[in-house]
Amino acid sequence: MKNAWKVRHSAMVNWAKKGTVMRRVFLSFLGLGTRKGDSYDYDFARYAMDGKESRRTKFVQAAEVELLGPESFNLVLIVTTEKSQSLHFDSLKSELLDLGARHIVCLPLEEDMTEAGQWRWFEAILEHIQTEDHLSVDITHGYRAIPIVFSTSIHFLQKAKRVNVEHVFYGAYEKNRELAPVVDMTNFFIINEWAEGVSRLVEDADAGKVARQAKATPSFRLGELNDAKLLHSLQDVTNRIRNVDMHNVHSAARTVVKLITERFPHASAAGQELLRLLTDKFETLAKEEFATQRYDRAYFLGQLAFIRMLLDHKLSMQAFTAMRETIASIGLIHNEKASMHTAKGRDERPKAEVFVSMLQFEPAKWRFSGDEKRMMEGLMPLYSELEKTGIEREIRALLPALVYYRNGFDHGWTKKSQSAQDIDSKGDEFFLLLKKIVDLLDSKGLFR
Description:
The chain is α/β, with parallel strands linked by helices. The protein has 3 domains: 163 residues, 3-Layer(aba) Sandwich (Rossmann fold), CATH 3.40.50; 102 residues, no CATH class; 160 residues, no CATH class. It is built from 18 helices and 10 strands. A hairpin with a 2-residue loop joins strand 4 and strand 5. The longest helix has 21 residues. It is elongated and about 100 Å long. The N terminus is likely disordered. InterPro entries: CRISPR-assoc_prot_DxTHG_CS (IPR013383), CRISPR-assoc_prot_TM1812 (IPR011742). It comes from Desulfoglaeba alkanexedens ALDC. This is TIGR02221 family CRISPR-associated protein.
């Protein structure tokens, strides 16, 4: 029996692998039914879905294929046991053919409850599904661990073969009830995809998965997540995080938190859990105290929060870039004209680059000329204050190593491979040194 199963299984796998065109596949398990004397059978019933009713049938699979449109499926895959195949498959296949279905394949599984046997069930189902197939699944009937295998297969196929789960149906038949509803369970499988998307956004600052899921499942029940304004704001803030848009990331985060706050009271319990994850991630960046127009204490505290997030996301290159830019911004703390929110204010930003060069090199090595020399001379009063307070020394202790590591990313660590191994610890070390500098600026009264 086992060898015969392998021969049939191999032949069907070869058929399923032919071609690479996107297919619509209907997948269901056909069990024994209820005992009728010395055998097993199913009761006749009609099934209802989306306001439509099927013809009378013993098989929920036939009803669902009829209601969905039999001509729309490239493959109808019926999983059976050896016994249910012999009892029912021919009748079901005949009915499906009468409806207009094509390519009806039986996948008989061994009745083997060992771990190895259940793995064979799982692998047999996987091998019949191609990459990017559109899958409709019926989970009405089960046999021992088959419901677990079906559920696991669906989740695995979504990840490994980018399968689009269009439908997951349960035929809610009850004895002596002529019309049985077909319940759509699809969202219970899709919700894990949304949860993964939110998790990826929270952990990696990557909104791509959420955006793709929204496009793939526009009618998802958790509408508080599949919301165009919220999705746009999430993509905006994550783009600003990854592109080190230091001066606009806080306002983008405030937009996200505001939209979440508006939607939270009306969200489902599951939706609230996912929205809460997003709030926890972005509320630090969204603090109103960071909404400043100047290079003041609030600005630098906001930058520290931003850099900490970058480090937590393992975005080390962006974090080191932000740390260097934060040091450069110290050169503007006494410049009343400087701001990133007006055109004239942004015109002052070149002075920050001159300032960071002053701290990166000893005065004897300064080689400023023209406009840069005039900027340097204008920065000397601040530089002198930093010298007197010891802050200049703290900046010089951090800046060369920070620039060394940051430039290493640009060169792919070709000459600095030994440094790549401790990149995470260096990020934390540099962050603490930068925080110390900001605290000193505050305690010495240099913020105005």
